[in-house]
Design a protein that fits this description.
Length: 747
């Protein structure tokens, strides 16, 4: 280090020493202290004002709420001024009324652009209304938004629904409603028509000859004199008291008599009428005012809301056909109803008539033959599947649901414990009893290799193959002795089919249920126009899933004679018999033959539809057909020979007596048939609930239906009680097992 550098270092050290001494001295002088270290006070983070979402978010949320019908969410986005001007309920009501008035089905929106100027914004969007009456309506619209605190709010007025609705304007639709078209039978005879309803009633204070009035009204209305008198007995003497609605032709026929009696009045109005109503009620259904709970739905499909619409049967199924399409004009009007502008217009389209496959005369005869009994009759054309008759009992008159004087009859129908509105032909499900032996024989021949003639069984009147504790009985206590498979079908020998059922179970428990399904039982029939149940074809998988048990041999044995869990409809059984008759083809049953055309739509013709083939060879099917023919023609063996004695038309058929599993309840009586047996044209099924044996109730009924179909004098068949296939009661000390509705598990 140089001399100069050393000198500079010494000077710096001297100066530092002087400052240190001075600091120490100051610290020792009382009252004189050095300044403390400065205190650092932390400062708060600066407050950042959150940035509001863009106005696009509020516009999109509002339009999304409109598309989904979430009016609550839309209302929450309105400005406070808009909410003060209209409450939430009124807001939702404005939208709903506009959509209903315009028959709007769906709403579609599209946000195009949003322009912001400070705390205000304008959103441009497109609104598309898909309507039932006017097709698609589209408009460009704009929405004003204002920034309120930290969110964008919509400044609402009715113009946001549709541009022309601002400021205080509304949609109004003026309707042109076409006349409801008719429903006909195959020959063009009316089953449901637009006609004149005549209400006949009394003015109590004007009656002079009450005896004659009561007798006359009882004659023309079918009501008892007591019922008629009960309707006006306590009424004001000057009131008009409606008694009943009668056909216009009856009013004309009885005009002189009705007009001559003081106190009787008649009033006419146009409306829906049902000629031969009771025979056709389950098929045509009826019309009624639009149900209140479905008013919005109907309005959005183009209805005004006060129309009569189909609520059951073909009237309901064919609503869009027979009612046509309303014509209408959509206008914007003021609150006083003054038209401002026309938005859209559509001309009405007339309805189209429906023609069915039924013969109204024959349908009426079949209904009268079944009478007031609970049950059903179905007649099919075996060559096409066309329904020739479909009757459910007891019937009901659909006119009671249409006319202004039908209150009492309506109430009677609705409270009847026999449930007359229930269509037993297509919706009633029952075990078949021995009718099912047709399927069992087919499965036995095809799957187990049984021969109709050489496969022989011994029937001593009982069957112990599942053990003495599970003994089952034949309906004939003495048994059938040695009997082959074909004769077992003819004589409906239970023991024969217990053996066949057990043999099938040992091969595969699924065989018999599978064959039954392929014969059309327990599966959807697909009858267009009417509600039809599928029934139940039980099998091992179904039992495990629904009962929680395995499928026992006894389940198959019970099924082999049409008992157990089995439930099928009369229509399904008729479908099966039709295929047995025609050589094995399952044609889909149909009741609508054609729908008339107009200038907008072509006529629709229904063609026969082949939907399946029976799983059986021609040779084996012929063996079944031969066994069925012998049911009605071989004395002492066939179970229905007496019922068909003397009938010139050969009939092949099968009796069934189905136990219902209710102690003390009589079995259901079945008979299934086709005719003529040598050249089949029709297949028939009759079931009468809790009526007894198939041979004594259902078989005579089927004979009468055949006679009516072919225009023959209808027999008054009252056969003597003869042996049938019912599981008749064995000796008192032994409980019958084979006829239980629910089978017992095998040991």
């Amino acid at each position: 280090m140089s001399i100069v550098s050393r000198f500079r270092m010494r000077c710096l050290l001297s100066i530092a020493t002087v400052f240190a001494l001075l600091f120490t001295a100051c610290a020792q002088v009382p009252g004189l202290r050095p300044s403390p270290e400065p205190t650092v006070v932390p400062t708060e983070e600066p407050t950042v004002t959150p940035k509001p979402p863009p106005p696009e978010a509020s516009a999109v949320a509002f339009l999304d709420g409109w598309r989904s019908g979430d009016y609550g969410a839309m209302y929450a986005l309105l400005s406070s001024e808009s909410q003060q001007a209209l409450d939430a309920d009124g807001f939702a009501r404005r939208y709903r009324n506009a959509l209903d008035s315009g028959s709007v089905i769906t709403v579609t929106t599209r946000l195009d652009t949003v322009l912001r100027q400070g705390e205000r914004a304008t959103a441009a969007y497109e609104i598309t209304l898909d309507t039932a009456l006017f097709g698609t309506l589209t408009a460009e619209n704009t929405m004003s938004l204002r920034l309120h605190e930290s969110s964008w709010r919509i400044e609402w007025d009715a113009g946001l629904i549709w541009p022309q609705l601002a400021p205080d304007r509304y949609f109004r639709t003026d309707y042109r409603i076409p006349v409801r078209e008719n429903i006909y039978d195959r020959d063009g005879l009316g089953m449901a028509t637009q006609g004149t309803i005549v209400t006949v009633g009394v003015i109590p204070g004007q009656i002079k000859d009450e005896t004659s009035v009561l007798a006359t009204l009882a004659s023309v209305t079918g009501l008892s004199e007591e019922a008629i008198q009960g309707r006006y007995g306590s009424a004001n003497p000057d009131w008009k008291i409606p008694i009943a609605d009668i056909p216009a032709e009856v009013s004309v026929e009885q005009d002189e008599t009705l007009a001559s009696l003081a106190g009787i009045y008649r009033e006419e109005k146009g409306g829906r009428t049902y000629p031969h109503g009771e025979a056709l009620g389950h098929i045509v259904g009826w019309v009624a005012p639009v149900p209140a709970e479905r008013l919005t739905e109907y309005r959005r499909h183009g209805y005004r809301g006060d129309e009569m619409v189909g609520v059951a049967g073909l009237e309901a199924w064919g609503e869009g056909v027979v009612a046509g399409q309303h014509g209408a004009t959509l206008s914007v009007v003021t609150a006083l109803g003054e038209a401002v502008t026309e938005v859209a217009h559509r001309e009405p389209q007339p309805g189209r008539a429906i023609y069915t496959t039924l013969d109204r005369r024959f349908q009426d005869e079949v209904q009268q033959l079944l009478g007031d009994r609970k049950g059903a009759v179905v007649v099919l054309d075996v060559r096409t599947g066309a329904v020739q008759a479909l009757v459910s009992g007891p019937g009901f008159d659909p006119n009671a649901f249409v006319g202004p004087a039908g209150d009492a009859l309506r109430s009677q129908i609705l409270t009847d414990p026999r449930q007359p509105l229930f269509n037993r032909a297509t919706q009633g499900t029952y075990p078949t009893g021995s009718v099912f032996k047709i399927v069992t024989m087919a499965a036995g021949m095809e799957a187990a290799g049984l021969d109709p003639i050489s496969s022989v069984f011994d029937c001593p009147g009982y069957w112990d193959a599942l053990g003495r504790a599970a003994r089952k009985y034949c309906w004939r206590p003495a048994g059938h002795g040695r009997i082959n498979l074909q004769d077992g079908l003819t004589g409906s020998c239970n023991v024969t089919f217990y053996n066949v059922g057990l043999a099938l179970h040992q091969l595969d428990p699924d065989i018999l249920p599978r064959y039954a399904s392929e014969f059309g039982l327990g599966i959807p029939v697909g009858l267009e126009g009417l509600i039809a149940e599928s029934g139940l074809m039980p099998d091992p998988e179904w039992k495990m899933n629904n009962v929680g048990e395995v499928w026992y041999p006894g389940d198959t044995v019970h099924l082999a004679i049409g008992q157990g869990y089995l439930q099928v409809t009369p229509l399904q059984v008729a479908w099966m018999m039709s295929a047995v008759a025609n050589g094995g083809t399952l044609y889909r049953p149909y009741i609508i033959e054609r729908i008339a055309g107009n200038e907008w739509e072509a006529e629709r013709l229904v063609e026969p539809e082949k939907v399946g083939t029976l799983p059986i060879s021609a040779e084996n099917l012929e063996a079944i057909q031969a066994g069925l023919l012998r049911v009605t023609s071989v004395p002492y063996l066939g179970t229905a020979t007496y019922a068909f004695a003397g009938l010139d038309i050969p009939v092949a058929g099968k009796t069934g007596t189905a136990e219902v599993g209710v102690p003390g309840a009589a079995p259901h009586s079945w008979f299934v048939a086709y005719a003529p047996a040598d050249a089949p044209e029709i297949a028939l099924v009759a079931v009468v609930e809790n009526a007894g044996e198939g041979s004594t109730v259902a078989a005579p009924l089927v004979r009468q239906v055949i006679e009516a179909y072919y225009g023959l004098p209808v027999s008054d068949v009252a056969p003597e009680a003869e042996e049938d296939d019912a599981a008749t009661t064995p000796p008192a000390e032994v409980e019958e097992q084979d006829a239980a509705a629910t089978p017992t598990a095998d040991p």
